[in-house]
Amino acid sequence: MTNSKQLLNEVTGMESGIHGQYKSWFLDYASYVILERAVPAIDDGLKPVQRRILHAMKEMDDGRLNKAANIIGQTMQYHPHGDASIQDALVNLGQKELLVETQGNWGDVRTGDDAAAPRYIEARLSRFALEVAFNAKTTEWQLSYDGRKKEPVSLPMKFPLVLAQGAEGIAVGLSTKILPHNFNELIDASIKYLRGKKFELYPDFQTGGMADTSMYNDGKRGGRIRCRATIEEVDKKTLAIRDVPYGVTTTQLMDSIVKANDQGKIKIKKVTDNTAKNVEVAIELAPGISPDITIDALYAFTDCEVSIAPNACVIVNQKPLFLSVSELLKISTDRTSELLKRELEIKLAELQDQWHYSSLEKIFFEEKIYKELEKKHATWDKVIEAIAKAFEPFLKKLKRAIAKEDILRLTEKPVRRIYKLDIDELNEKIKGIEKDIKDTKNNLANLVDFAVAYFENLKSKYGADRKRRTELKPFDVIKARQVAIANAKLYVNRADGFIGTSLKKDEFVVECSDLDDIIVFTRRGQMKIVKVGEKVYIGKDIIHLAVFQKNDDRLTYNMIYTDGETGIAYAKRFNVTGITRDKIYDLTRGHEKSKVNYFSANPNGEAESVSITLSANSSARNKNIDFYFEEMEIKNRSSIGNQVTKYPIRSIKLKEAGVSTLGALKLWFDDQFGRLNTEEKGEFLGSFQPDEKILVIYQDGTYEITDTDQNQRFDIKQIILIEKFNPEKLLTAIYRDMEKLQFNVKRFKIETTTLHSKFSFIKEGEGNMLEAVTTVDKPIVEIKSGRGQQARTTKVKLDGFVEVMGWKAVGNKLADFTKSTEMEWVHKPESPQGELF
Q1: Is 120 known to be catalytic?
Q2: Which domain holds residue 506?
């Protein structure tokens, strides 16, 4: 028994000890991963492995390229991990194209291709790295992991490197994701900060593309950035992707496109990767598929658009700290200023030492103190004492005391005959040193100006080829349901009350997407909205179902129902713009025996008239009633409606189809997103009836007639004019004819009727482009040409200058072409139609 208790106590003690060891070891491991592997330091923006690579490359630097394998081997003297981690980090640095110059196949961040083996590729430090990252005099050193070498605690980095390169890493319990920023914009921001001005920073990616930074939140946790590939419409059957979003390769992009196609979200015929020097992924569309909707669907369902959550975590004073991008830049700029100050202080001390020794040398020779060396002294110490004593009358000319080392250094110089020329050279040298001392002290006194000049010099030397690659622009919100391709067929069993995609033996209703909602009405007068599914129960006697369009206030439902309690028939007109999915809505007075006698769905609020036949047994004198829905207002779906008759209804038949009781559709053009809308965003285009069209005129001298579909996308950079199309209006166009170096003008009517096709109405030729266009009846153009005293202005009434001609005609010469010629319309119309551009 005693032995059992003793054993139990021993086991309990062991468990306690093991628990404590695990706790201690885990904390040690977590700290090590955070500080030594995953997270960059604020001081130089580098992770330890990157710092060791750069230090090793500096040791090897002789101006020539070194094999990557040799760089890896040199780095292994400092890095406690294997060559694989060093190789990955070196390739990553090389692909950043900032600190490391490369030769050979270093892989491609756009395609995801790996670099060649280290024995086949070469690298060296860039001139930029040598200038900003190294200075042995300002570097703090520590012993390497095995105690055999010294390595830098941090490099004296005089540039916000962590923001230029970006950083990503996963540690224990935290991660970091700092997005890369533009080289020149970082320098400009540093200068603004030094000058006390406000600045803003937004990411810039090597892969290009577009980015919406409206929720970037200065790079702090909780922020978000949306990145998109640039997709061009080559023609109505082909799209081309010209770049990839940050963090996405062309292989991943194509896989996501194929997956979306297999799921029925998009319909494509073929996708091909033609990437070489530039990214190009070609997409062939299936017949009858809209390019505009496909572009939206690519952003909605594939990696053509990705969302990135920044998380700027860095090591500050041996602790991880979450900062904003602005704070990172400020800290880096302050550190750069401090490093520049230390360099100036070191330089000043060195210049003062040079001045002191040069002054000693001048006195030594000018006053012939060197002759003490020729005298016979008992010992060498006596010689040194004699020289020191000889300097005593001249101590006032010096700025500090003479040390024994100074005299010993003088005696080491070869003694020869001193010419006046030698003294003159010493005087010039001292003057030069004094000028350098003055300049250095001035720089120290004006450190902000010196730091600004330093950054400006960096920009002029290294910033010419570092223009912004990522276009910053706000993105429109793409609603997945609106752009999803119909990939399912919906069926209905009206009697039993089921709808779904698996009821293939029942009545086919409509093709839809699996993202759609379906609105359903029953004979009982109930409404329900459900998501598309294989088999969904609604309720018996389904009378109408369709794909539900949320917020559609033009789709109007006309209904006549009989109240089950009173037997009175009511008529109502209503919209359904928003609901709760799977909830049953009663459209009658709520009695279980109520029933719908007549129901119609009208896309533009059409109000038909119907013939109502009353029951033969009713006491009504007139058993045939005509009812006109146009006499009713459109009200809420929960309204009871207007009384039609108190007598039983036998049947209701359509008498006459109605016209829309709604006003024409009012459309605006949002020139920020290139979209049509009804939310009053952008330029008002006018009120449109169902058969009215839109005219779009482009810079390349083409026009297009299109419908009012709000899913269309327009390239706002190419559009010169967009307005409601009136086929009776004359177009007046001025364009450049670069073959004859002149401006031509023509007036014509649009004679084509084909929709969604571009027609060129200017003369074909390289450099020919549209200068100005209007649909005003009597346009007047003001032509300005020449500069200075040669400048002149002419006004031309174009309706009298040129006759109306065919849309394919070349036109008449208006003026000679010069680079200084400018053209402006004199008047602008008051109406939203025919606006001059």
Answers
A1: yes
A2: 486-548
